[in-house]
Amino acid sequence: xxxxxxxxxxxxxxxxxxxxxxxxxxxxxxxxxxxxxxxxxxxxxxxxxxxxxxxxxxxxxxxxxxxxxxxxxxxxxxxxxxxxxxxxxxxxxxxxxxxxxxxxxxxxxxxxxxxxxxxxxxxxxxxxxxxxxxxxxxxxxxxxxxxxxxxxxxxxxxxxxxxxxxxxxxxxxxxxxxxxxxxxxxxxxxxxxxxxxxxxxxxxxxxxxxxxxxxxxxxxxxxxxxxxxxxxxxxxxxxxxxxxxxxxxxxxxxxxxxxxxxxxxxxxxxxxxxxxxxxxxxxxxxxxxxxxxxxxxxxxxxxxxxxxxxxxxxxxxxxxxxxxxxxxxxxxxxxxxxxxxxxxxxxxxxxxxxxxxxxxxxxxxxxxxxxxxxxxxxxxxxxxxxxxxxxxxxxxxxxxxxxxxxxxxxxxxxxxxxxxxxxxxxxxxxxxxxxxxxxxxxxxxxxxxxxxxxxxxxxxxxxxxxxxxxxxxxxxxxxxxxxxxxxxxxxxxxxxxxxxxxxxxxxxxxxxxxxxxxxxxxxxxxxxxxxxxxxxxxxxxxxxxxxxxxxxxxxxxxxxxxxxxxxxxxxxxxxxxxxxxxxxxxxxxxxxxxxxxxxxxxxxxxxxxxxxxxxxxxxxxxxxxxxxxxxxxxxxxxx
Length: 639
Hints:
Layout: H1 4-13, H2 24-32, E1 35-39, E2 44-46, E3 55-61, E4 64-70, E5 73-80, E6 85-86, H3 89-92, E7 100-103, E8 107-113, H4 114-123, H5 125-137, H6 163-167, E9 174-175, E10 179-180, H7 186-196, E11 200-205, E12 208-214, H8 215-222, H9 233-236, E13 243-244, H10 250-260, E14 264-268, E15 277-282, H11 283-290, H12 294-303, H13 307-326, H14 331-357, E16 365-370, H15 371-374, E17 386-390, H16 398-419, E18 436-438, H17 439-451, H18 458-462, E19 467-472, H19 474-488, H20 492-502, E20 527-528, H21 529-547, H22 556-566, H23 571-595, E21 601-602, H24 609-617, H25 620-632
Parallel strand pairs: 10-11, 13-14, 17-18
Antiparallel strand pairs: 1-8, 2-7, 3-6, 3-8, 4-5, 4-7, 9-15, 11-12, 14-15, 16-17, 16-19, 20-21
């Protein structure tokens, strides 16, 4: 008897890959065991944090939004339309959903059982190829020239920025694994596995892999009595072993394990069993690789119970940054993701500190990052700069309230130091009484800087105009922002001092286009990329943005992009400044990751000729934007 509903579902599915690679009979079989779900607007299909369902989903009609929940607010990061697939985490990961799927309008969704579709992924080369190409091209449909959206969007935080970081990075695996010969006795191999705390041993012959013995082999073949404990490895091993090349990605490793229904992959030099073994990938390695994703790190930050947990997150974040740099992800994308996780770490540190005080804060407050964190540009573990603003309280309560917040800030600053963010040398931290005060006192402080700038102090004060509120009361942020907007508007004296400070750093190159390097000290002959190249751009972006009353945007790259939109005459220059800044940030980050430093000093001898040329070319926009500043701001207001 015909199943008309199943045929209708099959007719729909066959229009979209990977279902178009299946026969009509296979599609009707899948459709017959699938469900049709009607969803009203705003109805939730699955929520971030839910255990993964036994079904994955295909949108028939309407649209499903995928959103990240942060601080009780949902941020839309992707949208699935007709034919789009979502909810595939059971195929690719062994943890909960990261994002929430919610109907943006009335929708019909087909729910297809994972167990029913699984054989077609592992046995049908076309289906497998589609999924692998989807990972490679970061699209739901690699055969569609429009290439809109992502196949696996529910795994991402930023629909364009994070997919490559999360799924197409090379997987980390065990190098130089334990090996044995085919004639070795299993009892000795088992003892070696136990002593070395490993779950597998590669069996090789003439340095090439011929099989593998895993815990599963020992359980099912030896522990059951099927084979004796003194059997030879060749009798117990699983053969042939599945081999893969050294640069395999997380996604490809997952797919290979699914395709061959194995829990281990043998890494060889060329990916075949004809070359020597160089490593082994376990199912645990795949799961661990997916724990190093933005979504998971955010979740771990929010669930941290102490500074040690937060430090672990930051260490994982460093690995993510390294992988992103290796994969040539644009620096502007990396900084966006890293900033969100750094903010999550800070917020959790504040929450833990409040808990540790044992009392409810005596007044509402806000925590403000300044400097590189305030600009959302802190990729490396550099100094922490922050401040605390609490709402106005009666004069008789002021000192008591301030004492509480200084104590709270000390707990936070100490915890952040344990995470890896050292105290700044100039003590611009919230636990310093100078930078922990009421809103009114902060408004007075900013007004003093704006109305009566002092040349000798402006350098330190300027970083307080690079701020980011990461915790607390929006009203405090709004009041401070509006005060800065009003106070700086048209203030020629303030901008004259800021301009003079911006022009204080000389160009990074000498008269003969040679690098200006350190002449003495610990870093003699090194190039100070922070002071000589990055800071001039940071200072210029701050000055120009504030002069246009652009207050909310503090990131240097984004400031220049906004300036390009605002001032058509110099749009091309500002675009060049933005790209130069990103390039310089990449140089600094690579230096810092390589040598476990803040990346401030570059050893020019380690740079290739082409890298030196790129570096020098990035300096020209600095000179050009300095010329704009010289012509625009009159320094005669400095007295």
